[in-house]
Amino acid sequence: MAGAETLLGLDIGTTKVAAVIGGRGPQVRLLGAASVPCHGLKRGIVVDVPETTQAIREAVTKAQRMVGVELEAAWVGITGQHISCLNARGQIQLPRARRQISWDDVERDMAAAVDAVSIPPDRQMIHAISRGFSVDGEPRIRNPMGLSATRLAVETHIVTASRNLVENITKCVDQAGIGVAELVAEPLATADAILTEEEEELGVLLLDVGGGTTDLALFLEGSIVFTGAVPAGGNNVTHDLAVALGVTHPVAEQIKLTHGCARASLVPEEETISLSEEEESSTSRRFVAEVIEARVQEIFRLAAQELAALGDRWPPPSGAVLTGGGSLLPSIAPVARDTLGCRARLGRPRVVSGPTELLESPALATGVGLVYYAHREAESPRAMPRRGLRVLPVLGRVIAWVRDLFTS
Ligand SMILES: Nc1ncnc2c1ncn2[C@@H]1O[C@H](COP(=O)(O)OP(=O)(O)OP(=O)(O)O)[C@@H](O)[C@H]1O
Ligand SMILES: [Mg+2]
User: Which of 10, 12, 14, 258 gets mutated to test ligand 1 (max ligand atoms within 8 A of its CB)?
Assistant: First the structure.
C-alpha cells in the first residue's frame, strides 16, 4: 500500500507512544497500530529527547510493518497544562457591490478573530475553530456561505500552546525521521474517537484520564468551548499507593491494576491483599481503594476548577465521558459523577475496522482520534466539519480549510 493512501496518528503520551495507521477513502478504515512504552515525558512535557525519539521510531516502525506501508508524516497530538484556550470574536463588513458571503469573506472573518487576540511570543496558536457565525446580527448560523449580508461575525475557539514545549515534541518526531503533518490538541483528537454527534449537540465533557495528564474538552451546542489539561492522571494514583504502602512504583502499579477500585465503600473491609511474594506482608484492599479514591477525586476536582468559569452552563446535559488508560480503574465513573455533579459514562474508541482488540482500549483513544481527525482534513480539505471550520497557522500565513460543507 502506498503512503499517500494512509494516514498516521501519533500519540506521544506520558506512559507510551502509540502509532495508529488509517486508510484514506470515503470512509476511514483503521489498518494497524502499535504501542511502545515511553518514559520520556512528564505531564505531557518532553523531558528526555533521545528516549522519546526512540519510542516514536519503534512505534511507527511496528505499525508500518503491520500494515506494510512507509509513512513520512504524522498527525501529532500535544497535551499538557501549557495548552490553553480562549474564545474570540471577529467581525467584517462585506463589500457593497457583492453581498453574497463567499469563502474569502469567511476566511477574512476568521483572520479578524485571530487578529483580535494578542498571542504572546512564547505561545503558539495550534487551532482556531469557528463556533458559529452571526450574519447581520442574526446569531447561531453554522454555515453563512451564500447568504446575502452586509456584516459577518464569527465566534472562534483558539487553542494555544507553549512554543518551546511544542518545539521539543516536534524535535523528537523530526529526529525519528517523521514529518509533522499537523499538531493537534489531544482533547480534540480524542473527542473524535469517543463522543457522538448527539452528545456534542446536547453538551458534553470529555475527560481523557492518561498517565500524567487528564485532558478536557467541553462541547456545547455542537461546538467546542473549552480545551485544556490538568497535570495529574493514573501515574499519580500509582505514586500515592507507592508512598502509602511503602512499596516500589512497579509493585504499586501492579496492585492498582490487579486490586484497584476507585470507590472504597464498595470494597469489603475484611479483604486483604499481599504486597510481596517473598515476604509475608499484606494490606487491606479497602485502604488501597481509599488512597485511590482520594487521588481520583482530586483529579476530578482539578478538572472542575478548570471549568468553574462556565457558571450556569455547567453541567452539560450529556454529562461527562471518561476515557484514557486511567479510566479503566473500576468504579471510576461514579466517583466522577459525584465529584463533578453530572452523569458520567466510560468511552472506548469507536472502531469500524482493523485490529479491534488493541484499538478499542481507552488508552488508544487519542491515537485513533488523531487518525479520524487526519481523515477529515485529508479527505475534504474544503468543507465545513461538524466541529466548525479550522484555520491553520502555516508558515506565518493563515490558511483556512473548510470541510464537509453542508453535509451536517
Ligand atoms: N486496567 C487498568 N486499571 C487502572 N489503571 C490503568 C489500567 N490500565 C492502564 N491504567 C493506567 O492508565 C495510565 C496510562 O493511560 P494512557 O495510556 O491513556 O496514558 P498516556 O496517554 O500514556 O499519558 P498522557 O495522556 O497523560 O500523556 C497509567 O497510569 C496506567 O496505570
Ligand atoms: Mg494520553
Answer: 14
What values do phi and psi take at 207, rounded to 5?
A: -125, 110
In a domain, 211, yes or no: no
Looking at all shown ligands, the one closest to residue 189's CA atom is 2
Number of domains in the chain: 2
Per-residue pLDDT at 387? 53
Q: What average pLDDT does the segment 134-156 reach?
A: 91
Collapsing DSSP states into helix, strand and coil, what is residue 140?
strand
As a whole number, the mean pLDDT across the chain is: 89
Q: What is the CATH number of the domain that holds 266?
A: 3.90.640.10
Instruction: Name residue, grid cell 453542508.
Output: 406
69-115 pLDDT, tens digit per residue, is 999 899 999 999 999 999 999 999 998 777 789 888 888 888 899 89
Residue 320 placed within a domain = no
Give CA–CA dist 43/59, Å, rounded: 20
Neighbours of ion ligand 2 (CB under 5 A): 13, 210, 366
**Within-domain flag for 242:** yes
Residue 395 confidence (pLDDT) above 80: no
Residues having CB closer than 6 A to ligand 1 are: 13-16, 44, 79, 210-213, 233-235, 238, 253, 256-257, 260, 324-326, 328-329, 363
Nearest alpha carbon to residue 324 among 196, 175, 191, 226 = 191
